[in-house]
Amino acid sequence: MSAALPTGTVTFLFTDIEGSTNLLRELGTDSFDAVLVEHGRILRDALCAGAAGGREVRVEGDSFFVAFQSAPDAVAAAVAAQRALTAHAFPAGAEVRVRMGLHTGEGRPAAAEAGADYVGIDVHRAARIAAAAHGGQVVLSETTQGLVRDALPAGVSLRHLGEHRLKDFAGTAGLHQLVIDGLRADFPPLRTLDRAPNNLPPQLTTFVGRDQVEEAAALLRDGVRLLTLTGPGGTGKTRLSIEVAGELGDVFPDGIYWVPLAAIADTALVAPAIATSLGLHDVGSRPVAERLTEHLRDMTALLVIDNFEQLLPAAPLVGELLRAAPNVRVIASSRSPLRVYGEREFPVPPLTLPDLAAGPEVLAQSEAVRLFVERAVAIKPDFRVTAANARPIAEICARLDGLPLAIELAAARVKILPPEAILQRLGRTLDLLSAGSRDLPDRQRTLRGAIQWSYDLLDPPTRTLFTRLAAFAGSAWLPEIEAVCGGDGDVLDGLAALVDHSLLRQREIAGEPRFVMLVTIREYAHERLEAGAEAGAIRRRHAETYRALAASAQTQLTGPRQRELLDRLARDHDNLRVATEWAIENEPSIALRLAGSLWRFWHMRGHLNEAEAVVQRVLALPHGDGADRLCALDAGGGVAYWQGDMLRARLRYQEALDLATRLGDRGQLAEQTYNISFTYGVDKSDIPHAIALGEQALAAFRELGDRAGVAKVLWGLVVRVLPAR
Fold this sequence. Notes:
It is a single chain. The chain is of the alpha/beta class. Among the domains are: 173 residues, Alpha-Beta Plaits (2-Layer Sandwich); 138 residues, P-loop containing nucleotide triphosphate hydrolases (Rossmann fold, 3-Layer(aba) Sandwich), CATH 3.40.50.300; 80 residues; 81 residues, no CATH class. The chain has 30 helices and 16 strands. The longest helix is centred in the N-terminal third of the chain and has 20 residues.
């Protein structure tokens, strides 16, 4: 058995050959294999030999992970390795440039006996630092440089590289480079998130499956325009797309843009979703797709479009964008290919599975077991792989086909069940599901079984909460969840239980908790909600809750809280869409009120084409002759006005005026009279009529004692109407 891993304060060193995929292509398999052998020998001699040498933890392809008990020893070994690599003549004249990253933190071995690998955030940070470096460069964290700055090897100094944002980490981190006499010292900027604008969502857990990232990134570097990551739900397509994109900041100086589609059901909203991610506002009546192609035409950028499978009829839009913008590339994740010209499909395989006959140290090296252990330790910090539990863990991963989401769900149970019990209980559910669902593909059955097993272990109130959460468009704030899902047990306790069981994720945004349900899990929750008796009531609660939210915000969107409320509505835009869609089909009065409350948000945040589409559908609904329709007509006039269509705006304002007359609503009579006057002033089609209507509105507001209305009319007359005479 090999020596145990260092524990306590440990310095982690990661290495990686820069451009290894291109090197393989240039050299061919035989020569590349020879290069790898010599590269491995040099690194082991420099990093692991002698009493002060490090402990080899893991080797994946051309990447080494070595742990040191001493930070100065780690730095000395890295320097020796870079000198030896530079001096060596590799086969076929290959130029081998190795990047290295070091960070010092807590050493927490995964396996109790031999310590086959480490778990914890410090390992993840070290790997990210290495990924930020260039070939031949050695980069240290702030922690490591503080431990070695007074104990550097001869001929070595430190260069501060500034503060950087590392992928998956909040905030910035100070990074430092070792400057080694006789070796290259000047490198391009680090490959961190500071290189180019991006809105990639931060990831709070480590990633397993580095080889897939490198392979997919190499395809995009080599000119693939559209890379579609395919596979069933739960295979990790979304996470892989984020990891790949994070490797490519140096390729796309104009930015990397994350476009989530999971909560969208209407193909017409795909273009607006891309525009929103790019920061483009939808103004006027020009089609969003045209504005997108114009905006992207001269950009060198990457679009990362997630969850395309339910919107495949919109796939031609991707082809249009790629044809119009020659330096734009796209990563798409989908359960099916997009079938667009030039697409390269990248099937996402499950994690590698262990040899069930191997010992704990070897078992812990497999991707599936590593993921299980990482997630288990996050929930139960003292969890370790032992001789007793190694085989059950491996069998759990094998029964779950190496599917990351299924493994995470199983690992979430270690807080209350040992792996042996998890295997026994999970196995029963999978066996029952296999017997009763033979029409489903194997992996889909496996994942469904893992979700069902997790669901079955919940107490009844938490099951009810889980099912009701299907009404939301993937995520929500606590107050809205309480409003929609309350009534059966404490909602906060139930949410905590669902987070503990990995059926829900919690993020903090603007100091408030937001709860997120993954697409695959939400599909299962949706099935249970629709199969029950309360689906209609819960969806009505959801629609009414978001109608109230929109109405409350609408009254304050011209005040000091405008930015805060617009941000709030933007984060719940998908829920507002879901609520509106349900209301159009089931409750016209709620749909009319939603449209009436949302038009300022649509205008201020640039969603005018979407707004016009909603207004047209809402105004076509039957049974709308009261105040709710009046509100929607006013909103529809505003949308048409901001799109520059004064005729359509006037028609809607006139219908609103007629309805206000029938209802005897004096305030709306004054408001709509002013609105019509203003449109005549804008398009200069009838200035005398505009002045006459303006004077009528002014008198009406004065009679009502509405000082704000009086001021508005005077402003409109002075700015828009009178100058047009």
